[in-house]
């Protein structure tokens, strides 16, 4: 059901050599670019008509209008199961607590008397938030995208999610209800590359945005890559993944359950156990059998995900070596189920999010931990962060120098400008002072023109 990779005994390689030994899903965004390019160009030139036609082709339903009417949002919220509403409200409450604390404040540094640099954090004006459809329904992704945008102070928030044949071309009603709970009234029945292009170029129904965030399939990722620059993006999200670093103290029932919890997303989902315990590896393999048999989505998702090249049990000689492996892997979700898990977790360098001990499973983070579940995949955790309030903010430096403060540093600027053979840079400062004016503090004299 799941393969093994044995890295015990020998000294572990480093860097790319170690990464090449680890399981990983194939996710060729570059190849998908040629598929999405004509879609994006069509939306650029024909607007909403193109979005509707591509939606009919890919989602199997033709809609009259891309914009979801306000009454559909109100109706979805009114008809939402009370238990689901309560769970979403608690998810929103906890996410707001965490994300509100992330908001940076304006800070001014006095560099010299009369010279300051202020860093001001300004939200982007308008964002497009993508919520996947397809195999599953993700109202939690509405929460994870909208809450940080709102807490950052973004004024224009638009959500797109694919039209659903079963719901007369509207996005799933639970997604619409989540939007209504969050006060988002600009929602579009648009999916895939055409939704990203709609956000990037704008249509007669949707004004263009500055930034697009949210997970999606390979075509969403390819459209993001194609249109990056015209729009900002959070990341090119690939198949979801879990890595578990565990020793003999871990419970194989928990480990197996957590591996399956990610495998049920997609046949390309990655489930990786890294352990120094042969006993735990064997017990986990044995435990997977009954748990897989008892779950849903077995044949189309769970079994192919666990059996795929992207999933494995990786045996290592020690927890120390296990740390090297998970750092090389850079998991989207990393669970630490070892003795003294908090101390081990503190040593991890590369992960989208870290879940410490047996009572902090990834599923908690997916919904109600307060953390964000939009995280880097495919090893991108080695250089990228998950979605946060900072994703929606731009730091702007404000430089404010007095005449005396500029005079005091002019000789350094002129020297560096001349060292770079850019004399006009220095001349721009010298032009502000009278000929022969002396900076007594530095003993530097503005040369006569």
Task: Give a quick rundown of the structure.
Helix content is 43%, strand content 18%.
Care to describe what's here?
By secondary structure, this protein is an alpha/beta fold. The chain is 43% helix and 18% strand. The chain is built from 17 helices and 16 strands. It has helices at 16-19, 29-46, 48-59, 70-78, 82-100, 139-152, 173-181, 192-201, 218-227, 252-263, 278-294, 298-307, 319-329, 341-346, 362-367, 403-419, 423-430; strands spanning 4-6, 107-112, 115-123, 126-130, 156-161, 187-189, 211-213, 232-233, 241-246, 270-275, 312-315, 331-337, 351-356, 393-401, 438-439, 444-445. Strands 1-11-10-9-12-13 form a six-stranded parallel β-sheet, sandwiched between helices. Helix 2 packs across helix 3 and helix 6 (139-152) packs parallel to helix 7 (173-181).
Strand pairing plus helix content: what structural class?
alpha/beta
List low-pLDDT spans.
none
Percent range of helical residues: 40-55%
**Overall morphology:** globular
- Average pLDDT metric: 94
Question: What is the percentage of strand-forming residues?
Answer: 15-25%
Q: Which strand order spans the largest sheet, edge to edge or round the barrel?
A: 1-11-10-9-12-13
Give the termini separation.
Answer: 81 Å
Main sheet makeup: 6 strands, parallel
The tally of beta strands, per DSSP, is 16
Separate helix tally: 17
Radius of gyration: 26 Å
